[in-house]
Every structure is written in structure tokens, then in C-alpha cells.
Amino acid sequence: VVAAPSSGALLGVAVLPQARTWQHAMTVGTRLAAIADRQPIPSYSPISLRHGRRRLAVHLRIARYVERHS
What we know:
Blueprint lengths: L2 H35 L8 H23 L2
């Protein structure tokens, strides 16, 4: 009964430096993952913007038609 807690305490003290290294690696890894998750802001080409405006105009025309005929 006395051997189990004392061997656990000795093992804990012996493993403490590795635990600190692991904890540091997890902290740095978390920060790197947060940086990697940042996505660049997309820039749209003028052609893409023109197509988007055209799609929006068609959508609004359809919405007005549905409102008038429902």
C-alpha cells in the first residue's frame, strides 16, 4: 500500500520535464493551427463581379414576378 503512492510520486517527478515539453508543444501547435486557419480575403475579378450583378438582377426579376403572380 505504501509502495504504490511513493512509486507514483517518483514516476511523476521523473516524467515532469517531458510533460512540460509536451505542454509547450501543444501550446505552440495550437497557436500555429490558429494562424493556419486564417483564410485570405478573396479578391474578385471584374468579370466575376459583373456576373454576380447579373445573377442578382435575374434573382430580383424572378422575385418580383413571383410577388405579382401569387
